[in-house]
Amino acid sequence: MFISKLNDISRRAFLKRSRNLACAGAATSYGMGLIATGEAAAFENISGYKALVCVFLDGGNDHANTLIPYDPINHAKYFNIRGNPVNGQRVAFDREELFQNLLKPKHDQTLTDGIEYALSPWMPRMKALFDRGMLAPLLNVGTLEAPITRSQFENGSQPRPAFLFSHNDQKATWMTSGSEGTRTGWGGRMADLAQTRNTNQMFTAINATGNGLFVQGERTAPFRVSDRGVTQFRGLQSGRLFGSSAASGVFDRLLRTPSASVLESDYATMNAESIEYGAFVEDALGNNRAQTDFGSDNELASQLEIVARLIRSRDALSVQRQVFFVSMRGFDTHTDLRDHSSLLGKVDFALDAFFKEISTMGLANQVTTFTASDFGRTLSLNGLGSDHGWGGHHLVLGGAVDGGKFYGKAPKVSLDSHDQVGRGRLLPSTSVDEYSTTLAKWFGVSSSNLQMVQPNIGRFAKPDLGFMSAG
Amino acid sequence: MRTESKADEQVILSEGQPTRRSLFSLTALSVSTATLAACGGGGGQSNPASAVAPSIGSQPPTDSGPGAPSNTEEVTKRSRAARFLHQASFSASLAEIDEVLEQGNEVWLDRKISEPISQTAREYFSSRGFDRVDTNNHFDRSQTADFMIFSQLLHGNNAVRKKFAFALSQFFVVSLEGLRLSWPAIAIGSYWDTLNEHAFGDFRELLEAITLNPAMATYLDTIGNQKADSQSMREPDENFAREVMQLFTIGVTELNMDGTPKIVGGRQVETYSNEDVQNLARCFTGYHFDYSGTGFDTYPNSTRQIETPDFVTVPITSDPRKWRKPQTASLHSPESKEFLNVSIPQNTSASETLCIALDALFKHPNVAPFFCKQMIQRLVTSNPSGAYVRRVARVFENNGNGKRGDLKAVFKAIILDDEARSDTMLTDENFGKLREPVLRFAQWARTFGATSSSDNWEIRSLSRSYDQLGQSPLRSPTVFNFFRPTFVANRSTASKNGLVAPEFELVNATSVAGYANFMEAIIEDRAFESRDIAAEYRHELPLAENPAELVEHLNLILTANQLSEGEKDGIREAIESVQISDSSDQEARLRRVRLAVFLVFMTTSYLIQR
């Protein structure tokens, strides 16, 4: 039951107060840099709504069973490595299973060793979106400090990311382009620059899962939603606590009580944020419901459904630029890659439902969804599972994506070629930095400010990989 | 916790006429024991100089009845005892506070540590038939594991041991989320029993016990892990090898004894390479469940044969004759293994290899600071000083009798350290930690005598953050625990002060309200869990007509007298807003108590344990 409809006066007061809250704490050098940049210059003067949605495949997606070699020569290499039955079970798909999802680029495209790829048989919807030109696979992208070759990796002459192959560290590095302990993610840094486009800056970054490091900025704190939307304090919302309205008033005061203790203050601040913003978002969401079936028992679809509902309420939220973070667990497939197939099936369903829903709002060209993950995995197996790797393949989806073709450089199907560090752990040929600045440019970050999003971007060849069409 | 004085109060309560007498008798008791304590000497109170009037607890008790504490020193002593109990255990009852004051911290701790284990998961399951093959399909379900762990955290003896075991369960993480084997509840129950059994034992033995535990071996894929096979291009699974180093022993960077990373040439030094991981992975090959004691039972009204749960309760084995499909050939990697400056020659047996590998990890200089710092974070404060970490790490390295890895000594060193005990830390704005949601819930249940009407403690996972705790024991989302030891929310004051605040990884706009709503429902006795679990508030109901006393009482037992004056005033005001119409109005009394308890659980002074 939702009671606290804000009237116009209190809403105006709320907006003013919240803006101040959102702008507090820019005292770091990066924050000062933001101010020096000037709010107008930070962002291209583009009108209209745009959103980026990061879909994190938690645990390290097995890219080799996501985009699978199809042409006879490369498929045979793949099958030789992954096709051996274990206890009567097999991880590799045969060509007949893959035929339906063969990705034929819309224009001729010749990849490494003439490789042709099929999407996992469990991803027919993404195959259809590829054919419609809405989906672009980006090959072998991963964390890098600078471009690096196999020999540079081995002789240590070029810096490489710290703590490779470790979940939490590489996850953090994917999200931040720093190591675990870096406090801002590149989604958050984009939000920092985009904030000024939004009347309600605190809804620039929305986190629907986990700790949301990806959408932490210097000035941006992600607002957390669950797949149910927002959660409000019942004892405040109803105006009564254990039957007493006076107690409800005390409750409100206690929740926000400031303290000399740092941790107490931080908790009180979060209470205040939940109280202040929760009611507003609930109000903005109103009764809007998704028009597409998002299914059930699919955590990614549930998160994308609330993201879609928030996007539908973008005017009530008074936002023009938003970055969202959602995730799906279970990709650490050491034990059995057959689990991976059903996960991809869920990803396929969820991304397709989300794209349909966005399309019903007429926003297909204005919302871009992309995948990220801890790392790729080994091509070699440990039985029925695979181990932690480095580079991997990712998918970008949206009406503004120049899809229907591949980007990046295809790796060889091998366990020891020069484009990997052994067992099929791919040496990334495209950096996460390039991936992110391509998205940032589309989002509206001006070319001169891409360094604010990715400080190391100058070390890489392509700040724009070309998979997003202009505007 | 059962108390001596309980019988008296029960009589008073049953008359339906609670009077202040019960409080007087309790306070009288506390004074007399406190007098005794003055002779006994407080074993762990190492900072007598700060005994005088700290910033907290300076409010004189409002009760001036016979024998009531009459000076701030008395209040301070009781605050300290409560604070000690909150760190060492799950909760602090008046009786326990008296016990601690009477015995002194260290004696009390020693007694609790040596208390025999009175509750095991194994006994929980077997006495209820949850380990039988029947139409409840226990072999396929994990729900009884949730019941089991709540039965242990929310009630029963061995609270000190369990508190440490719970901390260990967040260091050596196995989770029901993603634990796929038959009899998952029995398996994780056996894991919990292992942690409990070794909690005050030897780190090296604990390390081996968890390595060979069937739940861990399933969770991190030691089960079925095999030597490399060039024909099928198979390689050993690296999962356990990686995580046993990264999370369970040495961590990813070389550490100083004070827990800070060593910096060489401006960079941290990685403790191991991927080569080390690949070589260590060979050490954990060739193991499978030990089926030698496992039989089959027939599923009711069918011919279906279900294996009995024995194999998930005994260590896994490298003896292939004991496997489900017995064979003579070992699947252990015969190659040599080179890692962390250790070299294990080729054709060394699986068990000998394991021994050498675990010894090497155990002896690594990182283990002491890596493990001890995280245990301090779980029990006392998120940001211990380097000196505190070093003191505890030294005890890990040598318990005083030349023994390394004595967990009892480590636990005592953490709890009895000056930095944990000293009143001066209470005025340090950076000190303390956020109480974990599960520990708040356990504290509520234990403090107010919650009981389970089924005696099964039928509480399911409480992992949802929008209407539950956002945390459930033995249900970490991944092997990386509910939160990382280095987490701090960006833009927080903690971050600006250069602090970490691990438990805050669970704190967001959704979860703070979800927690409040869950506690409100639990305390109001209308939560889903309330069908089975309810609290009695035996000590609190007699205080319902005296809001100030009620607040002071809750302040002591829940927060060690750390509520601010403003918080106390507010809670009093709220209590007074609930009218008690006449002396028979029990409903209003209960409502007052519940409201007061709820509000204390919402204050930041409570939420941050200092």
Descriptive key words:
heterodimer; A: alpha/beta; two-stranded antiparallel ribbon; B: 610 residues; mainly alpha
Detailed description of the structure:
The complex is a heterodimer of chains A (471) and B (610). By secondary structure, chain A is an alpha/beta fold. In chain A, 37% of the residues lie in helices and 13% in strands. Chain B is mostly helical. Chain B contains 25 helices and ten strands. In chain B, the strands form five sheets. In chain B, strands 1-2 form a two-stranded antiparallel sheet. Chain B is globular. The model of chain B is unreliable at 1-67 (pLDDT under 50). The interface between A and B is large, with 87 and 88 residues.
A few lines on this structure:
By secondary structure, chain A is α/β, with parallel strands linked by helices. Chain A contains 17 helices and 13 strands.
What is the percentage of strand-forming residues of chain A? Answer: 5-15%
Oligomer: heterodimer
Record field, number of beta strands of chain A: 13
How many angstroms does the end-to-end distance of chain A come to? Answer: 42 Å
Overall residue-averaged pLDDT value of chain B: 90
Individual helix count of chain B? 25
Most extensive interface, residues per chain?
A-B, 87 and 88 residues
Low-confidence stretches of chain A: 1-40
Q: Tell me the number of helical segments of chain A per DSSP (H or I, 4 or more residues long).
A: 17
Low-confidence stretches of chain B: 1-67
Tally the beta strands of chain B: 10
- End-to-end separation of chain B in angstroms reads 23 Å
Kindly name the structural category of chain B.
Answer: mainly alpha
Classify the beta-strand content of chain B into a percent band.
under 5%
Secondary-structure element series of chain A: HHHEEHHEHEHHHEEHHHHHEHEEEEEEHH
Mean pLDDT of chain A: 90
The proportion of residues forming helix of chain B, as a percent range, comes to 40-55%
User: Spatial order of the strands in the main sheet of chain B?
Assistant: 1-2
Instruction: Work out the radius of gyration of chain B.
Output: 26 Å
For the largest beta-sheet of chain A, the strand count, sense and barrel status come to:
9 strands, mixed
Radius of gyration of chain A: 23 Å
